[in-house]
Amino acid sequence: MVSNGGLENVFVYVKDGLGDLKFPVPTTPVVLNQQGCTYLPRVFGIQAGQPLEILNSDETLHNIHALPANNREFNRGQALKGLTHTHVFTTAEVMVPFKCDVHNWMNTWVGVLDHPFYAVSGSGGAFEIQGLPPGTYIIEAWHEKLGAKTQTVTVGPKEAKDVSFAFTM
Amino acid sequence: MILHLFALVVAASTALLIFAGGLVTSTGSGLSVPDWPTTYGWSMFTFPLDKMVGGIRYEHTHRLIASTVGFLILVLAIWLRRAEPRLWVRRLGYIALGAVVTQGVLGGITVLWFLPDPISIAHASLAQIVFCLTVAIALVTSPGWTAAYAGRGPVPDDSLLRTLATATTVLVFVQIVIGATMRHTEAGLAIPDFPLAFGQLIPPHWDGKIAVHFAHRVGALVATVAILATAGHVFYRHGRRVELWRASALLLVLLVTQITLGALTVLGEKHYIINSLHVVTGASVLVTSLVLTLRGSRVKFGGAKVRRAGPEGPARGHA
Asked: Which residues of A are less than 8 Å from B56 in CB distance?
């Protein structure tokens, strides 16, 4: 979706440059909601090992079918409103598609990373990645239809950098 | 006679099941019910109708029809065991029962293992064998078969007919397996134009999907030649044998229908109804060819007056 000239739902993340740094894995779950026969959010990120809570807020039933390449595939049914299912991805993988085989228009994508440096563009295409240590990084921006673009960015101590990606429609 | 009618119902139910299975694949609904043998935790038979939405309508309906067909084949096998004097026909019933049970398990595994191509293709192929078995049982329990088609004179002992018809049946089966491979590997539109391939007779570039798709087209040509050869032989040599030329005529009608549906499947970008009709018509071509093969081989099953190979003429012997 384009808003104010910017592209929403672009997953932006540090693809390379963090070396062997290890980062704590949050225990707070990321929630993926099925509401109005759509997935909310449409694109999101999570860390490997962090719980993903999948919620059915609809009066109808859904199945949650994840189609990863490197993680374990799963397909769970949620027949009733309010049911939840928690899943943990074990391996970094960008992106893992989800679909509902009952409602074939329902799709979502999750970027599974082993670090917390990612964001999803919002209104106007804006995004922000905070707390990145000083260094040189390859930043990738991924869009479900338009593919991926990368840029190399060097960040100094306490420095903020503006990065923008241009996609051709 | 009642047994024969029941066997016909079972065979027709199996055709319906194959159509329903085609709908599941064509609509991408194979995993819309993630559990098996339950449906979203319910018993298959108590799953609420109001929850049959989206892809569940196709997948769950397929399971219900499959369960019904399985039950019907169980009844058929028991009925044959009690009422059928011929051991080999009773064995056909047992084999059909074993095949449909295996088919059900394959269907469950393909869901639980997320539609692995080899299992899905095996599921599609075994469905054809189950259909062949039910049709064969319906045929050999028919009054015409039992009387060895005696009302139409002695049955022919034509080895060429048997060879042609058997080869045709085998070729059609192989063609269906290639078609199932094409469907389950998402190669149905790997060549997007028809009758040419990327505007040429031979695809100018290749990959696995294009190869499978092109193999299915070549297979269609081979099967067409085989069917024309068999039907031509029947019309030329056995024009007075109603049981043979009727099956041949039906085979030709089905062949034309099937080729048309195949073309429409590509040109219509795999519309799910056309795609599913293509699947069930292919199965109908197979079983019609099988019926022709069995009728052409009637002399080998005993109890028939025999006429040796050659143009229509008087009987020369008895078996």
From this structure: 61, 102
Q: What does the pLDDT look like over A58-117, one tens digit per residue?
A: 999 999 999 999 999 999 999 899 999 999 999 999 999 999 999 989 999 999 999 999
**What residue spans of B185-305 are helical by DSSP H?**
208-237, 242-267, 272-296
- Say yes or no: A161 contacts chain B, CB-CB below 8 A: no
> What's the pTM?
0.86
What's A83's domain CATH number?
Answer: 2.60.40.420
**Residue A25 contacts B where some CB pair is shorter than 8 Å:** no
| Residue-range definition of the domain harbouring residue A38 | 24-114
Q: What are the Cα distances from residue B238, in Å, to A109, B251, B310?
A: 63, 15, 9
Residue of A nearest to B48 (CA): A79
**Would the CB atoms of A75 and B114 count as touching at under 8 Å?**
yes
Which residues in A lie closer than 8 A to residue B35 (C-beta atoms)? 77
Beta bridge partners of B2: none
Among A114, A144, A161, identify where a domain stops: A114
ipTM (interface predicted TM): 0.76
